[in-house]
Design a protein that fits this description.
This protein is an alpha+beta fold and 598 residues long. It has four domains: 3-101, 2-Layer Sandwich (Phosphorylase Kinase, domain 1); 106-294, Transferase(Phosphotransferase) domain 1 (Transferase(Phosphotransferase), domain 1); 316-329 and 336-490, Rossmann fold (3-Layer(aba) Sandwich), CATH 3.40.50.300; 496-567, Orthogonal Bundle (Helicase, Ruva Protein, domain 3). The chain is 37% helix and 16% strand. The longest helix has 19 residues, at 120-138. The chain is globular, with a radius of gyration of 26 Å.
Amino acid sequence: MNKMQSAILSKNFILEDKYTILLFIKKGCNAETYRVKGKDGKLYFLKLFNPAQTHHTAFDATGNLLEIELLKNLKHPNIVSYKDSGETVVENKKYFYLVLNFIAGETLMERIIREQVSSVYDIRQILSGVLNGLKYLHSLPEPIIHNEITPQNIMLDLSGETPQAKIIDFGYARLFHQSSKTYNKERLNLHYVASECITAGTFSPQSDLFSAGAVMYQLLFGTPPWNRAISSYEAMRANEKELILEAREKSLAFPNISNRIVDFDDSVLAILTKALHADSERRFQSAMEFLQALNGEIAVEKPVKSLEKTDSKISTSKIKPKRGKGFAAIAGMQQLKDQMKTDVIDVIKNPEEYKRHNLGLPNGMLLYGPPGCGKTFFAERFAEEAGYNFIKIIASDIASIYVHGTQEKIGKIFKEAWEKAPTILYFDELDTMTPNREKATHSYGSEVNEFLSQLDNVGDSGVFVIGSTNQPQLIDKAILRAGRLEKWFYIPPPDFEARKALFELYLKSRPLDFGIDYNKLAMLTENYVSSDIKLLIDEASRKTIKDKIKRISMETLEFVIKNQKPTISLADLKKHEAIKKEMEEGKAEPERRRIGFK
């Protein structure tokens, strides 16, 4: 039986009197792909979906396929382009179809199998196309996360003088604010998926960039990162997720390829190390930043010898000494700083009075609000103000493939914090570590119970816990009860005065032209978060260098602001304000000023 005989549509079949089937290409779990000819004589790709085999989360509220609805509105040279879509009936069965403009070329995986890439220049050309496509997707008013950047889902258009990479297959793509925990992730190639996606189901622009880094690694070394042969014994004793996470506990290998790729140097390894870092905050924060590093426009730190992690000890690089400006480094929010100083810092620095009244010391607090507003920065300044050591923990630090392994890691983290006391123990994205047990798709009972056990009375041991999150409603309610993380502080985007202070902070060490109007800059950047303002100034510096101007001018700053939208939309800010209101309904909080740094 040949391919066409096994396919739903046979050769020369005419679909909806518009498309003639020429060639069956491949069969997926819920769809088949064909090469077809339209009535206009042009070639197209046709994807035929079987609704009966498609997971219910692949449809929107009105019954439309999300993949089709997303592609309808996308238009970019590095994204496969939409032509047509609809419904059809074949042999009394209903199907959805999607028609895409034809790409004359091959998948990146076919290219890798056919021949190895021989220069960093070629890799840069391919990856730049992928990153430009991701930049477009992530910068949309409603950002799209592709979730499956792999060599199989990158087409090389060979119709021009140089190959042009195009991102295809949006079957796992979702809008950024759709819950990534509510859709089917079976058949994802986990070799290209970030660890936080595997352990906590947390997909983000940074996880797309991790996948792009994994593709870059394969282009260089021929295999995905951390790839190794799996024995039949291993395959029997553990599932694929466990084996991949176990492999990532070891160093990222960099085989010697300098004799094969003539323009190879250590800067490439530095880019890979950053792109594939376990901590999403230490990866490239945007496709633009990744592109700039790839093109040599910004420098990346030299690669460390390994990305090795250990189960037994907290990395000493995570422990920061107790020095710095403390709250003096934060502009605005004076009421909040005063309240925290009175209610928390004065108490943990002078515990005798509490003990005299037989009161336990406070155990912790929660910082929540939109991303990019400085929650981590605030936690670090809190530690400096209190004179405590600072240890930051992310989800991958406590992930384990072993039964009860995560509980053991949590216990070790608290034990080491106690040994280093006085210590601030900061859990970033706490919702991924202690999700609401009533709503979680997996059983997190033992992990949350261990965290609760360690948290009780931890303040008496010289340890203070700070959790941060963009989604406090997803944290298990028991974590936020009295005696645990009972203090909640909303960290919104910086207000006018804080934005002005941020511009002054980030511009003070750069060559400036006369006439910088900080009041106007603050006025033009309403709803920009702290990280946005840092990016604006970096972009202004790059434009100044590119234009061969000696100093950053007000005109350049205004140009950059005009062309760089806030990373958080007004609609998203309203969502976070609604979350704040819900939190305050259960616990009255005084009005607080906005955060900023000076």
